[in-house]
Amino acid sequence: MIRHLLSAGDLSLDDATLVLDTADEMARLTEGRAVKKLPTLRGRTVVNLFFEDSTRTRTSFELAAKRLSADVVNFSAKGSSLSKGESLKDTALTLEAMGADGVVVRHSASGAPYRLATSGWINACVVNAGDGTHEHPTQALLDAFTMRRHLGELAGKRIVIVGDVLHSRVARSNVLLLATLGADVTLVAPPTLLPNGVDAWPCATSYDLDGALAGADAVMMLRVQSERMNAAFFPSAREYSRRYGLDTRRQRLMPPEALVLHPGPMNRGMEITAEVADSARSVIVEQVTNGVYVRMAVLYLMLAGTNSEEAA
Asked: Alpha helix (H) ranges present in 31-168?
């Protein structure tokens, strides 16, 4: 397993399969148990270093680390020395001095986790929990894990990703990981919400949602990230929903067993209606559950052998 998880593109097919298989094992060992803790990371310290607001991801990593018996420190930019102007380097040196074994970092600047991992400021393993509009590799892993549990192996499966691809770190990571796993990915978005250079990505693109749904094994809706938009990327929310929202009419165009996913948080009524989000085909809540298993797997694979490796 790689030392740092910074990009879904860093994972080979063997690496990705190992994470997904390990997540399956984590689910088997903890599902239905009154006491969900495992002793595998006892004595390790995991720091959640979040420079951006987060609920699902931070809580998911915290639960994952605690279920592996690691000591967890939640470090938020608000109310810390970062709000007083402390630099990323000084924060990293502080964490190193405190003996952190793993650092889970979310940052508004693309590339910040890479800088932390490669600068030499810190010896801990680094996990990218989302950096700017760049990547979010553990979200892609949990999405793949969820799809694999329902669809079996993903090689040859047709996955449609719909919405604000331009600002979505989830879309980038999913395209890279799903391509590694052998899936056929199609991005559907208005031209203004597709990034420059998307033609070089290992996927197809389309502006026609209705046409893309017919053969899909899974459809992933992306949130419109209004907070990252400094211009008008579409005429109105109503027009966007009409052209690119998933409603019950469009859901009927999908094959009967096709899944509906969303990385969250959802804008109900915009990219997805409440009826579809709460339908039997939706695995959105299951994605949250699976996120804990996948992050347990990532932390276990990155940290469980660190002491023995250093001793060697």
From this structure: 56-67, 88-97, 112-118, 137-151
Q: Are 186 and 205 in contact (CB under 8 A)?
A: yes
> 137-287 falls under which CATH superfamily?
Aspartate/ornithine carbamoyltransferase (3.40.50.1370)
Close Cβ partners of 268 (under 8 Å, ≥ 6 residues apart): 274, 277
Q: State yes or no: 268 annotated in a binding site.
A: no
Q: Rounded CA gap, 148 and 290, in Å?
A: 11
| Residue 265 marked ligand-binding | yes
Residue 225 annotated as binding site = no
The reply, when asked if residue 205 is annotated as ligand binding, is no
Q: Is 223 annotated as a binding residue?
A: yes
Contacts of 300 (CB under 8 A, 6+ apart): 22, 26, 40, 41, 68
Please report, for the chain, how many H helices and E strands are present, in that order: 12, 9
Q: Each residue of 138-151: pLDDT tens digit?
A: 999 999 999 999 99
Give the tens place of pLDDT for each residue, 272-285: 999 999 999 999 99
* Domain ranges across the chain: 8-135+289-307, 137-287
The pLDDT tens digits for 98-154 are: 899 999 999 989 999 999 999 999 999 999 999 999 999 999 999 999 999 999 999
Give buried/exposed letters for 206-229 (b at 16+ CB in 10 A, else e). eeebeebbeebbbbbbbbbbeeee
Q: What 3-state class would DSSP assign to 253?
A: coil
157 is in an annotated binding site: no
Task: Please check if 256 is assigned to a binding site.
Answer: no
* Residue 66 annotated as part of some ligand binding site: no
CATH 3.40.50.1370 fits 8-135+289-307, yes or no: yes
> Does 264 carry a binding-site annotation?
yes
- 106 has binding-site annotation: yes
